[in-house]
Write a structure and sequence with these properties.
homodimer, about 160 residues, alpha+beta, 5 strands
Chain lengths: ~160, ~160
Amino acid sequence: MTWLETSTENCTVQRAVDLFGDRWSLLVLRDAMNGVRRFEDFRRHVGLSEAVLSDRLRKLVAAGILTTVPYREPGSRTRHEYRLTEKGWDLWPVIIALKQWGDRWAADPDGPPLDVRHRDCGAPVEAVVRCTAGHGPLAPREARARTTAAALPLA
Amino acid sequence: MTWLETSTENCTVQRAVDLFGDRWSLLVLRDAMNGVRRFEDFRRHVGLSEAVLSDRLRKLVAAGILTTVPYREPGSRTRHEYRLTEKGWDLWPVIIALKQWGDRWAADPDGPPLDVRHRDCGAPVEAVVRCTAGHGPLAPREARARTTAAALPLA
């Protein structure tokens, strides 16, 4: 079966995109990875409405990407903050790859506002696709995509 | 300045997300990376309307991510097919990282329908964040994000 003959029903890129592949969810995830945890901080920093933020946070919690943890400020009722789960942190390569592309192709002349480096040595980080047998980073033409036995025919 | 105090106006993740960070654009890019080039093939395979597909293709071409190349089938008028530019192929790590997450967290029990391997050795590929000084793949806690001189204050 060629890719064009397959159903996208069980495509795992599509499954991922359906869970968080929209503008606001991606920006909320970016902020969560930069330490933002509280509703009001997401709202103010990402710059979105309460209604949309509530909706996206609820979906990300339902997907197991964020989890809620109660906290209480003196004199206030208990609220919840949002933290990335293991499943959520596993999206780090997605966000770093987005940033890398944006840094290269869409930054202002004075560069991006955020710099991500290896904590120990201070060198910049990079997102790469590599061979799991140790043959290093790969260009797209060095890879081959094949449909598997799980591929379903396009209706 | 902390991340929360910065404006997201020149955030390069946001710039990237604004260009293609929506469900349909991401799925069109997935298909383009799997060799889909023609309007009707995108429409049928991705499963979206002509109007939405036209809009997304136009935006991806305007962004320099896709380029149009004329072709002509016998007996038909000249049409255009869509091919990824260098800027477009530079999104490969984003799509592979999305697939890797979906393969791990959202696949059916019989696995994903597509398998991407190193052409030469046949080993699976993986998307990783690594240190550019050669200290290998990094976990999020091994990296540190800092605002740069280009960071702008949040209004």
